[in-house]
Every structure is written in structure tokens, then in C-alpha cells.
Amino acid sequence: MYYIVFALFYLLSLLPMRILYIISDGIYGVVYYLIGYRKKVVMQNLEIAFPEKSNRERVKIAKAFYHNLLDSFIETIKLVSASRSFLEKRVTANWEVLDPLFKAGKSCQLHLGHTFNWEWGHHVLSNHTKYQVLVVYMPLSNGVLEKLMYRLRTRYGNKFIAAGKMSKSMEAFKETQYLLGLVADQSPGNLNNAYWMNFFGRPTGFVSGPEKGARAGNLLVLFTSIVKPRRGYYQAVLEVASEDPCVLEEGELTLRYAHYMEKAIRAHPEMWLWSHRRWKHSWNSAYAKNWIGEGLPGGE
């Protein structure tokens, strides 16, 4: 089955982007208007994030998001046959910020959010740095698609590490100067160990692992956001968040990241993955010990 799916995706990937985007538009019509894939979740999230906007404004954001979501799906299929030169023309960033960091001899973490289109971005990233690029990811439940995605993601030398095996897998890179990519706006699995803060005006839990790992190894940390100047083209901005996270107060790095992400999302809301249930967990006073920043619910 894997080889059949791969062959179909390969043939589809050979089509010019203008044809693939016509296909994307067709799929959008089915997904948004007929199936309504997670539309309730998307609109609930947008109501939480933008209560000041009208319903018409939120629907406009939702439609732009679905277009980006389906474009991302089509663009991932394009990876089956896309060359590095093709990707280089379509993904740009201030890659030069990485050179002095590598020369300083420190490994680093790159914190990003659920923004489009990282699947293209990490391939280009590896061509602009001497760091060994490592990415933590959640494996897909479908075995055929997981095998296909793993092949696509690692074709240019990047190493993908399953989240559930991260501690063990990182042992192999102890002596390597690496850049570890982490999608740090995941909804936490363990609410008692999460950092809690106001995010879009609502108490929200953030995974604590990225910060704790950075503090333990005193790894330099970068934040990144991605914008889409026009269809099929992406521009990332890399920003040094902390050169010495171990000197920060606990929770400060995560708080900075939350503020950074909220600012980036407000500027380009159509670029964020509104279909994931970011606010599925409710605040409980038992989490107060892990509250960071201002506005503790029920606090003085």
C-alpha cells in the first residue's frame, strides 16, 4: 500500500504549482462548505482570540486559514519531487543570524508555532546552517502516511525525533552541535506540570519541556514566525530570545514565547492552525503554583 500511495503522490507532485493550487481550491470548497472540517472548533477558537471582531471578520479569517491549510497539504505533496532549488526560491529568512551562533560553539533550540508552512521551511533551513537540524514531532497514527511523511521530512538530512522517544533519542546527539526545532505552542498533556499564563486574554497552559530542556543545557533559544507574502512563498524571521536561559527566572522564557506568538498570530491570524483545540483545558486553581506573568485568576 505504501508504494501505491507514494507513486500516486509522486505523479501528483509533478504537476505545476498553478495546477496544484487549482486542486487545492477545489478541495477547499469540499472541506469548508460540504464537510465543514472542524469548523466549530475553528470558530470557537477565533471567538476566544478575537472577541472584539465581528462574526463576519472571524469568518473571513477562518476562510483564509482553510485556504492556507489546504495549500499546506498540497505543498507537502509537492515535496515528493521538489528539488532544493525549487524550495530555495520559495522560502526565505534571515538565515545569517545562525552563523555567529554556530561559531560560538553552542547548540540551540528553535521555538515555533503551528504556522504554515514549516514542512517546506525546515528543508531550506538545513541548507543554510552547519547545525545538525533535529525536529521533535508527533508520529501519525496511519502507518502508511507516517512512513511517507518520515521519508519526505528526512530526505535532506534532517533528523526527526518522535516526541515519546525524545529523551532516549537525544543521547545520540550529545556530542553534536545541533539546532532542535520544537513546536512549543502544543496543548500540554500534563496540566500539573504546565506553565500557565494569559494567552489571548484567557488562562492557557503551555508545555514546560522546551524551557526546562533549554535551561538544563543552557541552550541558546531562538523564536521564529512565518509570513506568506504571496501564495506559494514564505518568509521566516529568526529572533534570538535568550543566549543564557539558565539565568532567567523559571517560566520567563515560556512567557516570552507566549507573548511572541500572540503578537505574530494577531498580525497574521490566517497563518495559525486554528483547527487544533488550543483552549480545550480549563483553568483550575490547583495550577496556581505554575502561573507565570500577570493576571493570576482569583489573585490579588
Provide mean pLDDT, rounded. 93
Low-pLDDT windows of residues: none
The helix content is 40-55%
Number of strands: 9
Q: N-to-C terminal Cα separation, in Å? A: 60 Å
Count up the helices. Answer: 11
Radius of gyration: 20 Å
* Major pleated sheet: 7 strands, mixed
When the domains are counted, the total is 1
As laid out across the biggest beta sheet, the strand order is: 1-9-8-2-5-3-4
What does the overall shape look like? globular
Percent range for β-strand residues: 15-25%
Which series of helices and strands comes N to C?
Answer: HHHHHEHEHEHEHEEEHEEH
Oligomer: single chain
Structural class: alpha/beta
Describe, in plain words, how this protein is organized in 3D:
The structure is a single chain. The chain is of the alpha/beta class. The protein has one domain (2-274). It is built from eleven helices and nine strands. The protein has helices spanning 2-13, 17-35, 39-49, 55-78, 84-90, 98-103, 118-125, 143-153, 166-169, 209-217, 252-267, and strands spanning 91-93, 108-112, 132-137, 159-162, 178-183, 195-199, 202-206, 220-230, 233-242. The strands form two sheets. It has a seven-stranded mixed beta sheet with strand order 1-9-8-2-5-3-4, sandwiched between helices. The chain has a two-stranded antiparallel ribbon with strand order 6-7. Strand 6 and strand 7 form a beta hairpin. Helix 2 packs across helix 4 and helix 3 crosses helix 4 (55-78). It starts with a helix and ends in a 33-residue tail after the last helix.
